[in-house]
Design a protein that fits this description.
The protein is mainly alpha-helical. Helices cover about 65% and strands about 0% of the residues. Among the domains are: about 100 residues, no CATH class; about 90 residues. The protein is flat and about 75 Å long.
């Protein structure tokens, strides 16, 4: 709550400063805050927390959207109405709206110029790559040339579905059209361009041999998120201990979590989590515990969902992870109004209802689980918050994750 108050006060000060800059630029400018009303924080501080938008009797075009931050529409208002205005009445002070706006315009022009130059250089580099591929294809069969042409088209347009389908079909039906030279080229392009279809094709061609180049490419795909599904499908069978890093395990956990809103939830894929847990159980459980205790609210909820996928397969893991699950519940999910149940993070909430399961936990046959729960409720939360079916912690995703497992 304190953070929200400080944020609102900061916005109010920014709006107040910008209103002053507008008056310093022209006597005709005023702040139009109609329709917003006055909030409690405005009454307390006198700051214009709802900035609205600039207005002027001589404005040639609308001032844009009216919002909480005045700066959102102020630049557009200056460019549309103030530049070259014959009715300008100087406020006679500097800095003013013009000095503020001209700096933003200069920064924008510099950024656009840099982007245009980067786009030009990227285009030149794309042409160079296409030329090299075409030169390579000139020495190969017609089928190889068609595959190379598909790669060129995907280099130019990543959304070219026809080229992607053509490349997939060639890999499945005519693998001979990918000789060693073409495969090396495809590996280089996959590392550079990070097109998911390139990894999919390389897995189709080389998965039987498990070359180090394919393995490292799959690890990069899942860590950096450019082809997680294909990378994990391969690594769930071919993964080794050397793959395991902190970032890699975070990706494994997130991939195992359910995704999507409650009414159209997509089940997570826990194959990689189970595979790496069989290789390095201590590292995986340590990572799960760390994310439950120290992660962001949405990631803690995702980790709880991943635990749900792991625990039914490995019952002994439940007792080892339950302390971390319960510790995760001790964190406030919603300190600033952006709790884990809001859209976008609610997707990791368990389907199970807590109200029917709560007292069954107290009667759980495992004395270890009973002791953990009772100790946690004693030191970490009020009983009414913990055991209420519709209040307090009962609404938190990790609470539902924990008890849906513990009550089985």
């Amino acid at each position: 709550m304190q953070d929200e108050f400080e944020r609102a006060v900061g916005i109010g000060r920014e709006n107040q400063e910008l209103i002053g800059l507008g008056k310093a630029w022209c006597a005709h400018i005023r702040a139009d805050r109609s329709g917003w009303g006055v909030g409690i924080i405005e009454e307390m501080t006198g700051l214009p927390v709802t900035g609205g938008r600039f207005a002027c009797d001589f404005a040639r075009s609308p001032a844009g959207v009216s919002g909480m931050r005045l700066e959102v529409s102020a630049l557009q208002f200056y460019e549309d109405n103030c530049v070259g205005c014959p009715n300008h009445s100087p406020g006679g002070r500097i800095p003013n709206l013009r000095t503020w706006a001209e700096k933003l315009i200069a920064d924008r022009s510099q950024r656009e110029a840099a982007e245009a130059e980067a786009e030009r250089l990227a285009g030149d580099e794309r042409i160079r790559r296409a030329t090299e591929r075409t030169r390579l294809g000139a020495r190969l069969s017609a089928a190889s040339q068609e595959a190379i042409d598909a790669v060129n088209r995907l280099d130019a347009d990543a959304s070219d579905g026809t080229a992607a389908d053509s490349l997939r079909d060639a890999a499945q039906l005519a693998p001979d059209s990918f000789p060693e030279a073409v495969r090396e080229m495809l590996y280089e392009d996959a590392w550079l361009l990070r097109r998911p279809v390139f990894l999919e094709v390389l897995i189709t061609l080389d998965s039987q041999d498990d070359p180090p180049s394919l393995h490292s490419l799959c690890v990069d795909a899942v860590v950096n998120g450019w082809a997680s599904a294909d990378g994990f499908r391969y690594l769930s069978e071919q993964g080794v201990v050397d793959d395991v890093t902190d970032d890699f395990l975070s990706a494994v956990v997130f991939h195992a979590a359910d995704k999507g809103p409650p009414w159209s939830r997509e089940r997570g894929d826990s194959a990689a989590l189970l595979h790496y847990h069989s290789l390095v159980p201590e590292a995986v459980e340590e990572k799960l515990s760390a994310l439950l205790r120290r992660g962001e609210p949405w990631f803690r909820a995702a980790t709880g969902s991943a635990c749900q996928a792991l625990i039914p397969e490995r019952q002994d893991v439940g007792e080892r992870l339950l302390p971390a699950l319960l510790d995760g519940l001790r964190f406030h999910e919603d300190p600033t109004g952006s709790c884990a149940l809001r859209p976008g993070t609610r997707r990791f909430q368990s389907k199970s209802a807590v109200s029917r399961s709560t007292w069954h936990v107290m009667l759980c046959p495992s004395p270890t689980i009973r002791r953990i729960i009772l100790a946690w409720t004693t030191i970490g939360s009020r009983p009414q918050d913990c055991w209420g079916s519709r209040s307090g912690i009962a609404r938190r995703p990790l609470f539902r994750q924990t008890f849906s497992w513990a009550c089985c």
